[in-house]
Amino acid sequence: MTQASFWSGSRVFSLVAVVLLAGSLRAGVTAFGPLAVRIGADVGLSATEVGALAASPVLAFGLFAVPTAPLARRLGFDRLALLSLIVLAVGLGLRLLMPEWSLWIGTALLGVGVATLNVLLPVLVKRDFAPNAPLVLGITTCTMTGTAALGAGLAVAITDTTGGQWRLALAASLPVVVVAIALFAVRGWRDRLGVASSDHSPHVNIWRSPIAWSVTAYMALQSTVFYTFVNWMPTIEQSSGVSEANAGLHLAIAQVSGMPLGFLVAWLMNRSRDQRIIAVGFLPITAIALLGGMFLPHLMPVWTVMIGLTTGMMLPVALGLISERAATAGDAARMSGMAQSIGYFCAGLGPIVGGGLFEATGSWMATLGLLLACVTGLVFAGLAAGRDRTLGASAAER
Length: 398
Prior knowledge:
By secondary structure, this protein is mainly α. It has 19 helices and no strands. The chain has helices spanning 3-6, 9-23, 27-30, 32-43, 47-63, 68-75, 77-94, 100-129, 133-161, 166-170, 174-189, 195-198, 210-239, 244-271, 276-280, 283-295, 300-325, 329-361, 365-385.
């Protein structure tokens, strides 16, 4: 793709659409963490129940990712994205209502909508922006990180300035979703490139592919680290004496700080076919920060920012691996569905197990130890998934 064709009118429209889609995916999730203690107290939830509420969208990410590729084959990528954005909007709207059931159902619907959009994002980028897919994924993941940071950083401020209306904070990303719906409504009527029509390569059995499993492991472990981090780190900071507002601010700073590095690793992946060093090179920083949180908890704000720096790099690497290891948009859709289904289902257990470990031990050390174990696994998964190979290259995978 030439520079001129990349900046053509249709591609700029597509770029704006996928960036707004990316901007719809995380703020509704990350806004929960800084408010978890307040929501639990207001609604009357235990720590494990708060963890379950935090984990419900992530579990939905896992449960509803696999059907995305077959649905896209029938409806087309853009029409399915439009329907998923509408489900997401309904979920955010339900969170504004007072009954407790609306909080649970709205959060679950949010998870269903985002589950499909998570899978579609790298596929849309691979379809519309190859061979610049890793670079565009860097733009979209920076957008996801930025809106995630805004969701976390503004949650307490919105709640306090509205007289304690934390429901408004949980639904604050709704206007962005509405604009994304408008753009995908325009895209949807002209969607002509569903999986079936655009993919004529031999079918790859991803469930027998070592490449797909290594990419799935990387997605699962980085998602577990991220969602446990954003949901429990503000509470962990509060237990070490940090105020609720400052804990939310530190989480926002942590995620914003990771944005430039996330774009950097996406740029590096766009220039390199072997991505092993890129996938694992920053992980020792995460390990050091987690060890610091375990043994020097009075410096927890420092460790929070360090972890945020590195989690900002994990997602663009994970999505880039899906795009780079797949030869076609159809393969990318199937591998994205597999990686995000298994990956987010495992990740959804993170906040639940993290809260359960705290209740069982009375300390956050075990929760931080769980994250350290995940980072160790990421090293092995990254070394396997980052090799210069393509899904389906081996006859055993067909």
